[in-house]
From TrEMBL, chain A:
One of its GO terms (biological process) is peptide transport. The chain crosses the membrane at residues 47-69, 111-134, 146-164, 170-189, 228-255, 275-295. It comes from Actinomadura spongiicola. Residues 345-596 form the ABC transporter domain. It is found in: Cell membrane; Membrane. InterPro entries: AAA+_ATPase, ABC_Ni/Peptide_Import, ABC_transporter-like_ATP-bd, ABC_transporter-like_CS, MetI-like, MetI-like_sf, Oligopep_ABC_C, OppC_N. Residues 112-296 form the ABC transmembrane type-1 domain. It is a multi-pass membrane protein; Peripheral membrane protein. This is ATP-binding cassette domain-containing protein. The keyword Membrane applies. Keywords: ATP-binding, Cell membrane, Membrane, Nucleotide-binding, Transmembrane, Transmembrane helix, Transport.
Automatic annotation (TrEMBL), chain B:
One of its GO terms (biological process) is transmembrane transport. Belongs to the ABC transporter superfamily. GO terms for molecular function: ATP binding; ATP hydrolysis activity. Pfam families: ABC_tran. Transmembrane segments: none annotated. Keywords: ATP-binding, Nucleotide-binding, Transport. Residues 6-250 form the ABC transporter domain. InterPro entries: AAA+_ATPase, ABC_transp_ATP-bind, ABC_transporter-like_ATP-bd, ABC_transporter-like_CS, P-loop_NTPase. This is ABC transporter ATP-binding protein.
UniProtKB/TrEMBL annotation, chain C:
PANTHER family: DIPEPTIDE TRANSPORT SYSTEM PERMEASE PROTEIN DPPB-RELATED. Belongs to the binding-protein-dependent transport system permease family. PROSITE patterns: ABC_TM1. GO terms for molecular function: dipeptide transmembrane transporter activity. InterPro entries: BPD_transp_1_N (IPR045621), MetI-like (IPR000515), MetI-like_sf (IPR035906). CDD domains: TM_PBP2. It is a multi-pass membrane protein. The keyword Transmembrane helix applies. This is ABC transporter permease. The chain crosses the membrane at residues 9-30, 97-118, 130-156, 176-196, 233-256, 284-306. It is found in: Cell membrane.
Length: 669, 272, 313
């Protein structure tokens, strides 16, 4: 919990003690973040602060009960039994006329000490054992079965025995409870530590000579304090409930000592005459448990914030000229020469907006337009964050939560899909437009067989019965060139290799006989030789079925193999479109040029690769002029001044002032 | 010629499995890496290329054969020896997000290996950290910030800086650019080449990307199912591959805008 | 799969052994014994000694344990020291009460919790916050206190349901249900919120996975995505939570039986602990442990039915 805050001063001492010593040439990109300590961060969580105040009040009242309590815990006033709240007894009195408020303060003492003992015992046992089980296989072979064993021991029986043995010594029972909850906590610590121990930075620490103990202490423990604290707060909550339960049964503190559970029992005995007493006694227990849980959550959140990215203030982005730029880019609707196949998909001026940092809307796609004809293959190329995937998802009608279309249209078979209802839109998926994703393994439900998966899709799209759907599924597996489709149909996803799984995912996509297949990085996660096979399969299927393919890829090679035409996207815009071969041979936009030149395949060993400085600006941080201006070697003042329109021929166009507008598209209104 | 910097001879590594016999990840692998040279280690997933890197770094136990670094057998170096070796051999991993401890500021992450060595004073530690940051093109202020504040490309620079603070002679790079976009990848590849030219550091460059290896490596070793199927100068291996597997690998590289002959789509036999 | 179940069965043997040894050792530490309790305050030293010999309490602890273990192998858990009743008989009459209570609460909590959890997972972040809030409340309210509140409102004030007592199922199924409704509800409340929270989180987790996206993208209707794929994907953590609840309900039943005056195993355990009646305590410990073993066993089977990867391992 203290590691992030503790580490900071040390790091400052190390690197910030002598600011003048910094190399003069190194300009700070961002000012060093002044980071408040854990306590200050915790104070930003109102619920946690409330919980902390409540717990502090309970602790203070318990410790100084003799000072604060208006009456002694056993001070009985038989003339005023079972009184409801009055000015003298502001929480009323019990069946012996004792002041409830005072007894609650004294009753907090066994409750709090009991909770403390349980939590300490559990933590002291579980944290070292859990850590060593995670970091040493040998220890794990002993610990894990033992934990399984101990977790099955019914705690209540042992607690009853301990109470009998130690003559109702509550603390002994609470210590025993700590021992009994430790195995569960060991599991939590071990699981959390295993995740962290698998990260590369732990391997790096081993490389520079850290032992297991040092790694556990310096690298693993600070990372897992969050889950540990949350679970300790749950242990504390359970301990309090157990403590009150035992006292309710009369097995804890000796009567007439005050205890919260005992007071609930008193209330239950008096229930036929008056039930007010249930309220304060129950409320104080419930309130304390809630406070413990909320404090645990708050500390976890505050700990994580210590090293998470601080919310960057969103820069204001001028959008003044965006609309003007968009209007100039509209394409004539009637430019369809007779011999071309019909337009299957027409995306026009598509703009997608997401809520950015601080709730300010940020565009992730801006003014994207393209046509896709039946049977055509189109590639979308660009780096991450350029809006390729978002474009594909917009066409599918499956934008992530929060993202929505704020401009333009998506016409599928001439009908604008952006105006369709959810059900109608869903009806297009699978039957008209199908989808193949990047991670073939993750794209298949691990709980269903390959055949079951595909048969489900077949039944959804064709309404076929079980047996025919099953037969069709096997046919589809054959169509994606799986050699033993009957056998593979019975297999589960985890039994497939990556290449096989991608074939299955493609078969699933073919189930509804789609006319457009959107493939989002379908080969990126695969081995090189398998990549080539999948690309070849897609090309063959495209020829066999005549479907169109929209291939989204960062890889020029994949696009070059499959796609006649290509769009290059940069920072949410289409910056170039044209025949793939033309773009590769003679890119018009400086970004396409830079991206092609950065490809090490085309580089000469020994010569530096062509480098575009910097990176893709994040959505919400796009300039109003050319999005690429900051990285462009040919940048001029005009580039920055206003949005750049698309120029060029119908066949090959680019969003750059250097592109010669052979016929002026922007002349069209 | 002097002795090679790194020489691996007949190395075998097996992983125990819960059931059945152990899996052989490396089966009699031999290779050498010269001073200041880049050796590319190519293969598909499961070929054992990452295991080889881990064996050199002492992260997996070795079952047979030997690893010799600068004339000295480090096959089964103990922790003390490893600590000393870490001044000579360093590592850069693939995942720019997992390779830095998110709860520690960059300066602390970079200074940690130096402080473990206890060889130099605090003032020098700081100088070395700033020097390394400058080398990878990051400002000194980066030292006070946390990994979450940096992009993937910047984090990979930081991971490289962490390797550099020790002034190593060999850096094992395990897919260091695979998670990066093309333009960032080019920046990092250029950085690797600059460091090699300026500092004379040698790389063992593990990658599945033949294009990257062809560009960067002086020599290349092709691994297949834990065995070396081909090795030699990069140029000659790429231009005249001898092993069938190498030929297949090179044929599978997609070339931009150059369609491959339309052969029959091969069947994929089912595996279990 | 078989290996996992076999392992579970084999593990239950040392578990029962460990539990019975722990109980025996702890019991031997208890000052005084059943003989002095039975003999009463007026008894002479000789009376106590004689009683002690009659009850075999003068033998060393390991011999006593061996006798008990020997009995177990012959299907006997011994006889109660206080009333000479066979332990299996005493437990047998009380087991149905505890079983009805514990299983009832687990089923009630699981069914209601899954319904609430699925509904809230589809309803957006406000419902999520509500579930979070309720789950803190469900954890915080002590079940015995809730039981008292229910009695006070529904039985004492409105007279809708019996406050205490147990009716055997064989005598009157309707009366049985009425006698259990309040205690089961009191015991289940915390579980309902825990299951609802677990279900919601597991559903949201599964709904974020790429395969759900892929199913949607390829036209599988939302209803099937949610109920066929996502709910099944979320079933394993729900089962885990359900079995944790069952084990927890065993502990909670001891208090709840007291509140509602139910003649179950918990009350027997409390009174036997008071009178140091070792064979009865031992018997309760064995029964509770067997219930835990059975719960774990059923959970393992459920895992295997849900997930093919578990079946394969």
């Amino acid at each position: 919990m203290t590691a992030p805050s503790g580490a900071e001063p040390a790091a400052r001492a190390l690197t910030g003690a002598d600011p003048a010593g910094a190399p003069p040439g190194a300009e700070p990109v961002v000012a060093p973040s002044g980071r408040p300590g854990l306590a200050r961060r915790l104070l930003r969580h109102p619920l946690a602060v409330g919980a902390l105040l409540y717990l502090a009040a309970v602790v203070v009242l318990a410790i100084f009960a003799p000072v604060f309590a208006p009456y002694g815990p056993q001070e009985a006033d038989l003339t005023r039994v079972l009184a409801t709240p009055t000015a003298d007894h502001w929480l009323g009195t019990d069946s012996l006329g004792r002041d409830i408020a005072s007894r609650l303060m004294f009753g907090a003492r066994p409750a709090l000490t009991g909770v403390l003992v349980t939590v300490l015992v559990a933590a002291v046992i579980a944290i070292p054992i859990g850590l060593s089980a995670a970091l040493s296989g040998g220890a794990d072979r002993i610990v894990s079965p033992l934990v399984d064993l101990l977790m099955s021991i019914p705690a209540i029986v042992v607690l009853l025995m301990v109470l009998a043995t130690f003559d109702q010594e509550l603390l002994a029972a609470m210590a025993a409870l700590g021992v009994l909850t430790a195995p569960g906590l060991v599991r939590v610590v071990r699981a959390a530590a295993l995740t962290v121990a698998g990260e590369p930075y732990v391997a790096a620490a081993r490389v520079y000579g850290f032992g297991r103990f040092a790694i556990a202490l310096r690298h693993v423990l600070p990372r897992i304090t969050g889950p540990i604290l949350v679970n300790l707060s749950l242990v504390a909550a359970t301990a309090l409930l157990t403590e009150t339960g035992l006292n309710f049964l009369g097995l804890g503190v000796h009567l007439p000592e005050a205890s919260w559970g005992g007071m609930v029992a008193d209330a239950s005995a008096a229930m036929n005459q008056q039930n007010w007493m249930l309220i304060p006694t129950g409320a104080v227990v419930a309130g304390t448990v809630i406070a413990l849980v909320l404090l645990g959550d708050g500390v976890r959140d505050a700990t994580a914030e210590g090293w998470a990215r601080p919310a960057t203030p969103a820069r204001s982005r001028p959008t003044r000229d965006a609309a003007a730029g968009r209007a100039r880019d509209r394409r004539p609707d009637d430019a369809v020469p007779a011999e071309n196949p019909p337009i299957l998909l027409r995306v026009d001026g598509l703009t997608v907006t997401v809520p950015g940092p601080g709730g300010r809307p940020a565009q992730v796609i801006e003014d994207v337009s393209f046509d896709l004809r039946a049977g055509e293959t189109l590639g979308i190329v660009g780096e991450s964050g350029c809006g390729k995937t978002m474009t594909g998802r917009a066409v599918l009608g499956l934008l992530p939560d929060g993202a929505h279309i704020t401009g333009g249209s998506i016409r599928i078979d001439g009908v604008d899909a952006t105006t369709m209802g959810g059900r109608e839109r869903a009806g297009l998926r699978g039957s008209t437009i199908a989808f193949v994703s990047q991670e073939p393994m993750a794209a298949l439900d691990p709980l269903f067989t390959v055949g079951g998966h595909i048969a489900e899709a077949v039944r959804v799209h064709t309404g076929a019965g079980r047996a025919p759907a099953r037969r069709r599924a096997v046919e589809l597996l054959g169509q994606v060139r799986i050699s033993d489709p009957e056998r593979v149909a019975k297999m589960y996803p985890h039994q497939l290799s990556g290449g096989m799984a991608q074939r299955v995912a493609i078969a699933l996509a073919l189930a509804g006989g789609p006319r457009l297949l959107i493939a989002d990085e379908p080969t990126t996660a695969l081995d090189v030789t398998v990549q080539a096979e999948i690309l070849r399969l897609l090309r063959t299927l495209q020829r066999e079925t005549g479907m169109a393919i929209l291939l989204i890829s960062h890889d020029w090679g994949a696009v070059g193999e499959l796609c006649e035409r290509t769009l290059v996207m940069y920072a949410g815009q289409v910056v170039e479109s044209g025949p793939t071969a033309t773009i590769v041979a003679a890119p018009q936009h400086p970004y396409s040029e830079g991206l092609l030149a950065a490809n090490p395949q085309l580089g000469t060993p020994g010569m530096p690769l062509h480098v575009m400085p910097g990176g893709v600006p994040a959505p919400g941080e796009w300039p109003s002029g050319c999005h690429f201006a900051a990285r462009c070697p040919y940048v001029t003042d005009d580039c920055i001044a206003h949005p750049i329109a698309v120029a060029g021929t119908d066949d090959h166009r680019s969003r750059c002032l250097r592109t010669r507008p052979t016929h002026m598209i922007e002349a069209k209104p | 010629m002097t002795d090679p910097l790194l020489s691996i001879d007949d190395l075998t590594v097996r992983y125990p499995r819960r059931r059945g016999g152990p899996v052989t990840a490396l089966d009699g692998v031999s290779l050498t890496a010269g001073h200041g040279r880049t050796v590319g280690l190519v293969g598909e997933s499961g070929s054992g290329k990452s295991t080889l890197g881990k064996a050199i770094l002492g992260l997996v136990p070795v079952d047979g054969g030997s690893i010799t670094f600068d004339g000295r057998d480090i096959t089964r170096a103990g922790r003390r020896e490893r600590r000393e070796l870490s001044r000579q051999i360093q590592v850069v991993f693939q995942d720019p997000y997992g390779s830095l401890n998110p709860v520690k500021p960059i300066g602390r992450t970079l200074s940690e290996p130096l402080r473990v060595q206890r060889a130099i004073g605090t003032r020098d530690v700081r100088a070395r950290v700033l020097e390394a940051l400058e080398r990878v093109g990051l400002p000194a202020t980066a030292a006070d910030r946390y990994p979450a504040e940096f992009s993937g490309g910047q984090r990979q620079r930081i991971a490289i800086a962490r390797a550099l603070v020790m002034r190593p002679r060999l850096i094992v790079c395990d897919e260091p650019v695979s998670a990066l976009d093309l333009s960032l990848q080019a920046q990092i590849l250029n950085l690797f080449n600059e460091l090699k030219a300026d500092l004379g550091v040698a790389y063992l460059f593990i990658s599945h990307d033949l294009g990257v290896v062809r560009y960067l490596a002086d020599d290349v070793v092709v691994l297949y199912h834990g065995c070396v199927v081909e090795s030699g100068a990069t140029r000659s291996v790429y231009d005249h591959p001898r092993a069938d597997y190498t030929k297949r690998l090179i044929a599978a590289i997609p070339r931009a805008a150059q369609t491959i002959p339309n052969e029959k789509v091969p069947s994929c036999s089912s595996e279990s | 799969m078989k290996r996992i179940l076999m392992r579970r069965l084999l593990l239950s043997v040392p578990l029962l052994f460990v539990v019975s040894v722990v109980v025996f050792v702890l019991q031997s530490l208890i000052p005084g014994d059943a003989a002095s309790q039975l003999a009463g305050l007026q008894a002479t030293q000789e009376d106590v000694l004689r009683l002690r010999r009659q009850l075999d309490l003068d033998e060393p602890i390991w011999t006593q344990y061996w006798h008990w273990l020997n009995g177990v192998f012959h299907g006997s858990l011994g006889t109660s020291l206080t009333n000479r009743e066979a332990v299996t008989t005493a437990l047998g009459t009380r087991l149905p009460v505890t079983l009805s209570l514990v299983l009832g609460a687990t089923v009630f909590a699981t069914v209601l919790g899954v319904v609430l959890g699925v509904a809230s997972s589809r309803a957006g972040s406000l419902a999520g916050r509500l579930v979070d809030l309720l789950s803190v409340g469900g954890l915080a309210i002590p079940s015995f206190w809730l039981g008292l509140l229910l009695i006070s409102l529904l039985s004492v004030r409105l007279g809708l349901l019996p406050a205490t007592g147990y009716v055997k199922f064989a005598d009157s199924p309707d009366g049985w249900a009425r006698s259990l409704l309040l205690p089961v509800s009191a015991l289940a409340l915390g579980g309902v919120t825990a299951i609802a929270k677990q279900t919601r989180e597991a559903m949201l987790d599964v709904l974020r996975r790429p395969y759900i996206d892929n199913l949607r993208a390829n036209g599988v209707p939302e209803r099937r995505v949610v109920f066929k794929h996502a709910l099944r994907g979320a079933a394993i953590p729900i089962c885990t939570m359900s079995s944790i609840l069952l084990v927890g309900a065993l502990g909670g039943s001891v208090v709840i039986e007291q509140v509602f005056g139910l003649p179950g195993l918990g009350g027997l355990a409390v009174s036997a602990t008071g009178s140091k009646d070792i064979p009865v305590i031992q018997g309760v410990a064995v029964y509770f442990t067997l219930l835990v073993v059975a719960a774990n066993f059923l959970t393992d089977i459920a895992y295997a039915l849900i997930d093919p990867r578990v079946r394969a391992s």
